[in-house]
């Protein structure tokens, strides 16, 4: 890429940003799963080291006020890829493994943006946005009729949902990878297949990881681990959880290799550090936090592997890496991995209140690191208010591309903020909790709308942030401790109006 000629595409109608003028950078978005604001060394993690990620932060920009749109995976990823708030639609909640595609083929996505600008586009790792054109009607033994190829991805190697949901196979370009014709695959989220063991009835077969009692991970057993949903078959196509990170990294490196001579966009979503946490042996036992700490170490290894490959191929200088997480951290998410008792003072959400699922900051404030040797001055820290919702439009700005009218309407171009050039920040970001409680966050305040959801999730020990009365916190003081709604009704009023206007759009 270094000496690549000037880059032209018929679809590039606007002037390119300065660094992108010489040669457009490759873009790698590394999206971790459930990695908290405090889970990386460079964000204050204890007990586990993340040298590869920390190096990216040193060589790039580390953001302290970046937000995912939602506190769970599916809506967060939906918004990142489409530039549309997930709460505008009723059907973007945590998807089952047999959900139909949530992003519709006619929707404009981040992959479309890069694809139209002449990039090769790839999605590797966790998907969790549905596949096929009808829920529960997929034939997993044939090519899927509707998939990532319809929303701008030239290549994909993905897990349909999460590792704790069936089907437990990778899908490569619309078809089960390593498909085993001797073991046809059937999937149901309603009933078990006759004769198949389940975590509920056959707990003795959970030889790798036990599920917490009364939790959802007690349906089909794959690789000695209980899952959500039922599946039959799979044979040699079934993944082994301990090899998932390797498979993802290996395919990422291969994608980079195959596209080394042209610009590429890689949407790289790790399975780490979502449950079931079952990393490879070589990451085990090197920190005192057990499997959750090991999964963080494995995530860091993946990052290191990708950077190493970029360096080996001479692509490192002109590749923009964005590293972030889909939502905040959860410690116990339904498997007996002893994550809670082994924290030893580590705080997955750092100084923030709340976790994954919450309306509090811990639910949606995420690590964000941008590193691009050629286009970003390293060693910086940014306290600018940021949201994943703006990535699509900011990439559009970088490429000088126009976004079709009526698409990605919530995404605003803030390339300068992303690259550390400074400019106007967003006046506010909007955050969504598991129970659809919306919050408005400005540089000073956080308003959480009243809601009737439960205030606490027992097993996960998560404060949801739900309350029947309005909440207002001064976020310049960490921890969202003192509700100032009654003291500052004028601020509550102003932030409520922002929400009202946004909802009407
Ligand atoms: C929840 C699961 C949790 C996790 C989450 C999705 C239960 C009780 N809990 O419903 O274990 O899978 O969904 O996580 O089943 S996410 O990061 O993909 O959004
Ligand atoms: Ca997640």
Structural features, described:
With 505 residues, the chain is an alpha/beta fold. The chain is built from 10 helices and 22 strands. It folds into 3 domains: 335 residues, Alkaline Phosphatase, subunit A, CATH 3.40.720; 47 residues, no CATH class; 76 residues, Arylsulfatase, C-terminal domain (2-Layer Sandwich), CATH 3.30.1120.10. It is 20% helix and 16% strand. The protein has a 10-stranded mixed beta sheet with strand order 7-6-5-4-12-1-13-14-2-15, with helices on both faces. A 4-stranded antiparallel beta sheet has the order 17-18-19-22, covered by helices on one side. Strands 3-16 form a two-stranded parallel ribbon. A hairpin with a 5-residue loop joins strand 17 and strand 18. The N terminus is likely disordered. The structure holds 2-acetamido-2-deoxy-6-O-sulfo-beta-D-galactopyranose and calcium ion. 2-acetamido-2-deoxy-6-O-sulfo-beta-D-galactopyranose binds next to loops.
User: CATH H level of the largest domain: which superfamily?
Assistant: Alkaline Phosphatase, subunit A
**Mean model confidence by pLDDT:** 95
Strand order of the largest sheet: 7-6-5-4-12-1-13-14-2-15
The biggest beta sheet, please?
A: 10 strands, mixed
Give the terminus-to-terminus CA distance: 41 Å
Gross CATH architecture of the largest domain: 3-Layer(aba) Sandwich
Beta-strand portion reads 15-25%
Poorly predicted runs: 1-14
Share of helical residues: 10-25%
CATH C-level class of the largest domain is: Alpha Beta
